[in-house]
Please model this.
Amino acid sequence: MSSLVLMRILESAPDRYDAGMRVLSLGAVPRLHEQAARLAVHKAGARVLEIGCGTGAVTRLLLERGANVEALDHSPEMLDRARARLGDHWTGRLLLRESTAAEIDALPAASFDAVVASLSLSEMSASERTYVLAAAVRALAPGGRVVIADELRPRLLWQRTVHVVVRLPLALLTWIVTGTTTHAIADLGGELAAAGLRTVEEHRSALGTLAAVAAERER
Ligand SMILES: C[S@@+](CC[C@H](N)C(=O)[O-])C[C@H]1O[C@@H](n2cnc3c(N)ncnc32)[C@H](O)[C@@H]1O
Model:
């Protein structure tokens, strides 16, 4: 969904972020969050690492499904909002940490049943994504999965054309306001494969521009 590039602007106002994303995506983002949580948690007590938790929308869904969650974000403002949303209710099952995604390389190997990234990989450079995906694979316990929910470049030519035409002026506006932008991921399947992962489930929505993807280690 092309308008999601504006999420960078919303991140500068965390208290309006969730409502803004709901409106910008015409309800598609909350549905994407639900899909990500469903793909990530298959049993109560699953150990889940969340990269770029933002205001904690997916974090809460993961917790409600019974997971034990370690959620990190590099933005203290977004983390404050997540703390306000999640409160003390999940003590013992939730660790919220200020950290960059790349720092997951310091976590113990094979310690998570799922690693989830919702709308955070598209904020990273291609090289950072490569590093983070490799570190995520290292953090996965046997049988674990990586779940990505994000903006992807659509597959069909006409969808790609609409996506570019609508997205470009919004990306420019975002750049002018924040000095940053996001990148619809062009070949997530290829990036996952390069990290040694095989896509096992994929759900596309919003004219092919949003996807929730689960991937497991190649055997
Ligand atoms: C668009 S928000 C998405 C938040 C939440 N996951 C969701 O789906 O609503 C992206 C979040 O990822 C965080 N983020 C982006 N790049 C990051 C990185 N390299 N390390 C840690 N957090 C990052 C941002 O601070 C922001 O809170």
Remarks:
- The chain is about 40% helix and 25% strand.
- Helices lie at 7-10, 14-24, 28-40, 57-64, 76-86, 126-139, 157-178, 188-194.
